[in-house]
Specification:
This protein is an alpha/beta fold. It is 56% helix and 13% strand. It has eleven helices and five strands.
């Protein structure tokens, strides 16, 4: 099976060289090119045709979101993974909307780093657990503020408890705070969140984000 061809765009030389070395030690991954600017991303993607682009969100003097837009438009079959320390959940949603396939936190473990690349290369969307709840909160809040009962909520049959959990998540409450408010255990809150996602027939938070934005755009087009 051909190795996963990775283009790494990172302007910190130490991180760039270190990541490149790690990637090339893997039997199934090959860093075919590296760069440190937004111009490198498109130019090298055209030259080397990567399967996956690893893009640093903190490139100096660059708009990483525009780079993602350009990459996805010109290379729709190339998956994009963005790397950052702790991106704001609003930023995560913006990148999801533009087609980013995964996120890697810069304090991720080596296994998380490599598994994210391998998983995304198979066409699966990946969002690290530390970002999942904040993205879910952002999407739910966005849905609740959209006017009439949101499609994302009205399209499925939720229990009274699940509806209460969604309302509290939209207010930015943590699982622990929700548990205290509802007088239930934290693991029960997590179970409710899991059931909500399961009822939407979506297996990852990224798919939830895609679902929300696509339905809102479709709705706007028919008004």
């Amino acid at each position: 099976m051909p190795a996963i061809r990775v283009l790494l765009i990172e302007d910190n030389r130490l991180l760039r060289d270190g990541a490149t070395s790690i990637l090339n030690e893997q039997a199934d991954i090959k860093a075919i090119a590296v760069g440190g600017t937004n111009g490198d991303a498109l130019a090298k993607a055209r030259s080397f045709k990567p399967n996956v682009v690893l893009l640093d969100l903190g490139l100096r003097n660059s708009n990483s979101l525009r780079i993602v837009q350009s990459l996805r438009k010109e290379f729709p079959k190339t998956e994009v993974i963005v790397m950052d320390l702790i991106p704001a959940h609003a930023d995560v949603a913006s990148y999801v909307k533009e087609g980013v396939a995964g996120f890697i936190l810069k304090d991720a473990t080596l296994n998380d780093f490599l598994n994210t690349i391998r998983t995304v290369a198979k066409g699966v969307k990946v969002l690290p657990p530390p970002l999942a709840s904040s993205l879910f909160s952002h999407i739910v809040e966005h849905a609740l503020q959209s006017g009439s009962p949101s499609k994302i909520i009205s399209s499925v049959k939720l229990t009274k408890r699940e509806t209460e959990v969604i309302a509290l998540i939209a207010k930015g409450r943590s699982n622990k705070q929700i548990a205290e408010t509802m007088f239930i255990a934290v693991h029960t809150v997590k179970s409710h969140v899991h059931n909500i996602l399961d009822k939407l027939a979506l297996h990852t938070r990224l798919e939830l984000a895609h679902y929300t934005f696509e339905n809102e755009e479709a709705s706007a087009a028919t008004r």
